Amino acid sequence: MNKKTLDILSGAAGILLAAAIFMAAALFPQSAARSARYVKFLSCVMGVLCAVLVGSAAFSRRNAEPIRWIKARRPFWLALVATVAYAAAMNWLGFYLSSGLYVIALGWGLGYRRPVSLFLSAAILLLVIWGVFERFLVVPIPRGIWGF
User: Fold this and answer.
1) What's the domain range around 31?
2) Is residue 68 part of a domain?
3) Which site from 83, 97, 101, 118 is most exposed, i.e. has the minimal number of CB atoms within 10 Å?
4) pTM over 0.85
């Protein structure tokens, strides 16, 4: 498969997924109307960006080069294993603790060796997520066995 074909197929799949998400957001209960608006907005943005991808790939004149799927195997597998472990740990550790550990461990594993920056970026990310989802959108965040 070449890059042009992959871009067109990925963009088309993204448009279908955005439409499905938009329609599913219409089924949200009235008590989650704010969240539904946010999801609809994000799905519209996703649909537009995927349409741009399809259009730019379809009208591209460049030669379609073949794709090398995984260029760096170790970072790819590390990120995949870390993401699966993150998803598995979320119910046990809770969203905030598992997310903080995920950001720090993945950054360290991918070669970023500045611990202060790793901890600071994880803290800022979690603070932004807390502000947007818990305070602004009032979306429930998974709590761990310790309640945070």
Assistant:
1) 3-59
2) no
3) 83
4) no
